[in-house]
Amino acid sequence: MSHNILSVIAAMAEVANVTHDDPTTRHPKKPVITISRDYGSGGDVIAHRLSQRLEIPLYDEEVLKEIAMRLQDDPAVVRMLDEGFGRAKDMWLYRLFSGNDVGPDVYRDTLVKVVMSLGRMGGVLVGRGAHVILHEACALRVRITGTPEICARRMIGQGYGGLEHQLEKVLEINHKRGKFVWEVFNSRLSDASQFDININTDRMADFEDVVGMLEVMARAIHAGRVLGL
């Protein structure tokens, strides 16, 4: 078993031991949804609308802020780890002068604890491998995808530049997101079994139907787990 997996298991076990007697650990107060998305697939829009529909918080940048607060470190450094986990190994010079031990293991453990804490309260958690961390929790795990060309054209329609540039951006960002989840959790975004539902938005001009479907699923999972079904 790899060091990465052992580190994640240890962090999860620590959170579980601390919150063993807390009923919200098993039954969150409100629905919990994790959304993993391709760039340009509409995942961010869907996450935002879903949080409004369910009247629950949306956690994206908030996760980074919480990690930075717990580490008592510069949010810019945490963002470097978030955007390029592998580069953390090259941050020895920063650690030398700052005295802060911000490395892969520290970041990973803190990320797990933050996501699990948020998962106990309810909300929509975007990206950062939340679907892996909450795989045993009362959470709906969603993957939003799209073919690169269509995702690129969707971004162009929103005023984000030319086709060639956007296509490169789609491929680059999707690669980084997949690499992050693999390096941190040894899990692949292409593994459909890691999600409760996989949605390709290529033929969807309006995401309201997707939001409505996910709302029903999230409420069903939340109610079913609470009722012990």
Automatic annotation (TrEMBL):
Alphabetized SUPFAM superfamilies for the sequence: P-loop containing nucleoside triphosphate hydrolases
Q: Do you know which Gene3D superfamilies this protein is assigned to? A: P-loop containing nucleotide triphosphate hydrolases (3.40.50.300)
Matching InterPro entries: P-loop_NTPase
Name the domain of life: Bacteria
Query: Could you tell me which Pfam families the record lists for this protein?
Result: Cytidylate_kin2 (PF13189)
Its recorded name reads: Cytidylate kinase-like family protein
